[in-house]
Amino acid sequence: AQSVTQLDSQVPVFEEAPVELRCNYSSSVSVYLFWYVQYPNQGLQLLLKYLSGSTLVKGINGFEAEFNKSQTSFHLRKPSVHISDTAEYFCAVTTNTNAGKSTFGDGTTLTVKP
Amino acid sequence: DAGVTQSPTHLIKTRGQQVTLRCSPKSGHDTVSWYQQALGQGPQFIFQYYEEEERQRGNFPDRFSGHQFPNYSSELNVNALLLGDSALYLCASSLSLADYGYTFGSGTRLTVV
Known about the structure:
The complex is a heterodimer of chains A (114) and B (113).
Chain A: E1 3-6, E2 10-14, E3 19-21, E4 23-26, E5 32-38, E6 44-50, E7 56-58, E8 64-68, E9 73-78, E10 87-94, E11 103-104, E12 108-113
Parallel strand pairs in A: 2-12
Antiparallel strand pairs in A: 1-4, 3-9, 5-6, 5-10, 7-8, 8-9, 10-11, 10-12
Chain B: E1 5-7, E2 10-13, E3 19-24, E4 31-37, E5 44-50, E6 53-57, E7 64-68, E8 74-78, E9 87-94, E10 103-104, E11 108-112
Parallel strand pairs in B: 2-11
Antiparallel strand pairs in B: 1-3, 3-8, 4-5, 4-9, 5-6, 7-8, 9-10, 9-11
């Protein structure tokens, strides 16, 4: 079984500042990792995913994440945030035998202040 | 190109009743997964359908059942509703069982009173 821990439930940050949203995972087998964003009253939108290859993954809207196997982490970063980045962010993990069965963290609320 | 379409968007039911939620996958997708998202929590996997069969199931009671039709659309049925079933129900579709590029719908907000 796998699990995900998002280390910060809320992250406030000023506009144009950098941000990091932290995600740790646990699994006994190799994992695939994802970050999703959810705006109010909407579904989830995939920001980026790590399946294999380079450990630095670039996604949409200027976000990137780094897979660190030794620390079992997959932190999400953006060098300069905008007001429009205010949303809920979810880290998720799955394995190659459970392609449709993702395990999600409880989310991090990113609030970008002017 | 329409994405994943879910209906209805909102629903209010009474304890003990039954409910059916519907999902049309993104064009070209044949695999559908359902998730329950309680307020303030991340989505939890309910089950996945492919070729009209349930392929995987999460830790949900038998009150939760589903169906996939030949056109790949899907239904989620919940019997004997409990107050704790109040949540946002999300449908996600993908190109195949082995595809990790899920597209989520906007969900159905179910309130049980």
